[in-house]
Fold:
Amino acid sequence: MTTKLKTLKQHFLSFPKYLMVHPFDGFDDFKRFKKGKLYVAITLIVLFMFLRIYAFQYESVIINPNNPQNLNSLELIFSAGLLIMLFAVGNWSVTTLMEGKGTFKEIFMVTGYALFPVVIIGFPSIFISNFLTMEEMGFYHLMIGISYFIAGWMLFMGILNIHEYGLGKTLVAFVATIMSMSVMMFFGLLFFDLIQQFIAFVASIYQELSLRY
Amino acid sequence: MKKLYIILLTLSLPLLMGSTQYSYSFYDDVLHAAPGMTYATYFNATRLDAELRSPEDLTVFDDVIYMVDSSTNMLTMVDSGFNLIDQIDTFELSQEYEAHLIALGDNDPQPETLNSPLGLDVRSSGIYIADTSNYRIVKLNHDYEVLDIFDHVDDVTFDEMNFEPRKITVDVAERMYVVARNVYEGIIELDSDGTFNRFTGVNPIQLNPLEVFRRSLMTEAQLAQLQRYLPTEYTNVDIDHRGFIYATSRPSEGSAENMIQLINPKGIDVLRRTGYHRPMGDVHFIEGENNYVTTGPSLLVDIAYTNNGMYTVLDQRRSRLFTYDREGNLLYINGDQGTQSDKFREGVAIDYLGDDLLLLDRRTRTVIVYQLTDVGRAINQATAYHDIGEWEQAAELWREVLRLNTNYEIAYNGIGKYHLRNGEYAKAVEYFELGHDSYYYSKAFQAHRNGIITDNFNLIMLGIVLLTSTGIGLKIRKVYKAGGSIMYDD
Structure:
């Protein structure tokens, strides 16, 4: 039992922390010795989705402009999930062409692990924000800012290491990833629009026929 | 008899439901609201037995209603019982002014008439009329004799164009604040003798960085062809007892947020905008062309200051009246577009007669009188008590407001402030949360939290000490169990 708990602690806390402070060694372990676990990445992504809902609902009322009646948990979950999947797919498609060594699974796992600081700092920060006054809110914003900054750092170092890129090439890969993400979004919207029009067309034909006969 | 009343009231229900009174909540929702003001009576040319063709401006001084008409060029006076006092189109010259003209060489001074006047203001120092198409301001005394005429503004702006005053207001020092047509520099301030002082309350124009960059690449010729970025024109001015100018302007390109301004004597906009939304008339509106509904932001054409920092603006586009308090909270919205006698089509001017609001409709040539409803009176009184720091009376009235209109979120802040002053911080926090006032919520919460910490300081310190010592103790125990020692040895 204790060994199991210890492994969980190792996988969920110690190793991501190690990745954060020793990105090169950490991601080397991550890739070569398969220390990164898919279930950890998925758990972190799920926690991140939950964090967004939690923030929407329970951020201190001083800074929370959200109407609790407008809470749409599915929207928050899907927007986060969509963004992560878009990044993973976009990065994978770009780095495949740019001779990246990372597999899709690794890219996805790096994305998940990169959310570790956001999750680990986000939950307590939002809880504490309820005990802060307006003047002290700066600390809360600082904490959230730091968490996203570290997340960006981890994502960058992770992508750099798993593809075995240099600094310049990683930057290029990121720019290309953002471009490919926007292209995918464009096609997605186009696809949805066309499908919608097609369905409307079929529906109107059906309506026409059913009214006539 | 009672039954008859009930039947009649029931029959009139559809009429009453024809217009829904609303307000905006903190979360931008349009909520049903109890009306703050309601139709009381009206008067028009027929009722007054007077001639009104195109009334342009209305003002109240000393319980007398003054109106100017741009078609008949007459000044109309109506008393507070809405009976006609007089209508004048020819103004005799006062003795001093006649003597002054004769001294200047005019041997046969004639009485003066107006030509399409668009604005007027009445103060104890006299009646000031913006005589637009005569390009001058006429100052009358209270016997309707001409005291002075100001037709020349000594500024380069008017070297090339005519001085066409549209609206005017006058402060206690008899300085005139004039809104003139095609003047983008701001409100013209004239001294009591008509000399030009300055432009005040300039509407600043800000270009976005992209625009600045685009312009830096253009040649002079290209720049000249561009549409000019002009500051928006003011539409109306009013002045309060402290000499602060309340001004309304047209919505500027892409921004409707600074349409109402409170200009201090230094010429700076100091209007407080701490309400849920910026004071700008309607918060929700549809942009762009649309055949079904009125589009675009509110078109504010007049502003009337009442007291305790409350002011009302008139939206000509949708025929609505918005009343705000000193902090910029939207207190109530009333008025409705229509042709019934309690509605109006083209409001041009508003002013307060005591607590009643007079609205001048140019199209129907009618003045509609609005009076406060129970909830409106309670709101006004609560605001007044709030203004002088009588929190307890204010809180009582806010409770009454909440009873009459459950959707009235601002009332919670009023009650919260009373609890805050009274030291009941937990209650204050609760009310400020309901009223969404983050500033006062923060203040009340701080006091509440610090109170809890001070009261339980011993317990909290004990807890911290216990926790740390337990942690250290466990660590020591672990070291000894593993056969080590905490003592220093090498």
Remarks:
- DSSP finds eleven helices and 27 strands in chain B.
- The first strand of chain B starts at residue 22 and ends at 24.
- The radius of gyration of chain B is 30 Å.
- The domain at 20-372 of chain B is CATH 2.120.10.30 (Neuraminidase).
